[in-house]
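#struct-pred
JK: can someone run the complex with protoporphyrin IX containing FE? inputs below
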Amino acid sequence: MTNEKPSERGLRPSAHNTATTTNAGTPITSDDFSVQQGKQGYIGLHDVGLVDKLAHFDRERIPERVVHAKGAGAFGEFEVTEDVSAYTCADFLQPGKKTPVLARFSVVAGEKGSADTVRDPRGFALKFYTEEGNYDMVGNNTPIFFIRDAIKFPDFIHSQKRTPDTDLQDWNMRWDFWTLATESAHQVAWLFGDRGIPSTYREMDGFSSHAFQWINEKGERFWVKYHFKTDLGNGYLPQDEADRLAGVDPEYHRRDLYQAIKDGNYPTWTLKMQIMPEDEAEKYKVNPFDITKTWSQKDYPLIPVGKLTLNEIPKNFHVQVEQAAFSPSNLVRGVGFSPDKMLLGRVFAYPDTQRHRLGGNFEQLPPNRPLANVNNYSHQGAAAMEFSEPTVPTYVPNSYDGPRADAEKSPGDWGRWEPHGDEPYRGDPYPHPEDDDFSQAHVLVREVMSEEERDRLVSNVVGTLGEVEEPILSRVFDYWRKIDEEVGNRMEKDFKDSLK
Ligand code: HEM
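RT: done, structure tokens with the ligand placed:
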């Protein structure tokens, strides 16, 4: 365990009023002129300052995240204000504990330079630098998701990105995918309502969306969902204002977050949990591990846990935010996975993409290094920066007191559940009485949204249909009629009227 501040890692001593150097630290001759042989001769490859500068510049870009490429990050702290030790033995969740945090908020489909104010879910990723190792909560600002099986995720994302021929974004393929994958209905209804474009990152909630497991010291298990509720209240942008801002300030959300923190106007969120005793999952009305469903707060009310405060903006975006690697696979003892097939797929995908995006030693980069000690037998690889004492062998078992696995301290096998048989199975999840695709979407549109919000929902959807072809267009109206008959009919009528 080190006491270093994650936000200070990698910071060089002040460079004000010093000589410019090569990347090897030796002073260079000129910032303005490369060396030539004579006044009109060839430039020399031996001009180390020139070559070093150009070669490094040529390599400045790294692959952007395949999704959630545009984002903003900030450091802060999570403080536990309540006592949830009856539900989890995770050290960082014990009463009074304070843990440094890195947060990154993002837009899903757009590229690194895309506009902040588009209609899209927002990422809500947190890295807790706990004394037991890094714990990441990689959620969204929505409690649900478009699909429920990881095998569909690449197809879903392809439909949200760009066409292969012209590289255009295309509502036709989005609606094609959504209306064929009808488990998307709840998330799509959410997306086209007011909450589909938050006014700022500070005024949006964050959700784990998935169910996770919490395990207490006695080994009792609970299914849990995380809700980070913004203390500012939720704020939304209407479509026309979002469109205007995308033109005048595509960095609107990023700028707002940094400016607020610079002004000492620190955004805070209260963490509240829905907690389901382990044995209630079987008989709950919906499959509690289906990420397209919420758990009713009447059945599982929100239990407060603590407060997240963001109080420090990055000193270097590339090092501290672009190179940050969040992953649902980063758990600590007292927290486990659940039988949510999306979650289990994500556990593989994040470290996999990060090895590609940042290199095999990405966990040694400043934002990813844990405060807890890293003791293992991985070594070497590109850009290795850390190493064990030479007396610690590079293999196990060994006769030299090298580290040994400790199942009691590991989150590993603590999280577990009943798989319901051991035959290979591909199909809908284990059935529950209300597992259909449209009921919760209907409740959202008819009971949660006001009449005015429903009007905006209709207009937001109709505004995307101009380029949608048959038979997809007819399917869009049928899809919405299955969510809410009146809303679907209005969409069809308003769209047809707009063509007159
Ligand atoms: C099987 C489904 C999914 C797959 C395969 C997947 C895959 C990915 C990948 C490859 C990245 C880029 C990571 C990086 O380069 O560091 C990413 C980023 C992200 N994903 Fe997912 N994702 C899935 C579902 C979800 C869901 C359901 C949520 C929210 C509940 C989510 C939230 C995020 C967030 C917030 C980020 C950005 C993290 C950051 O700020 O660096 N993803 N996802």
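RT: quick notes.
Residues 70-146+196-364 form a domain with the Catalase HpII,  Chain A, domain 1 fold (CATH 2.40.180.10).
The first strand starts at residue 70 and ends at 80.
JK: thanks, will look after standup
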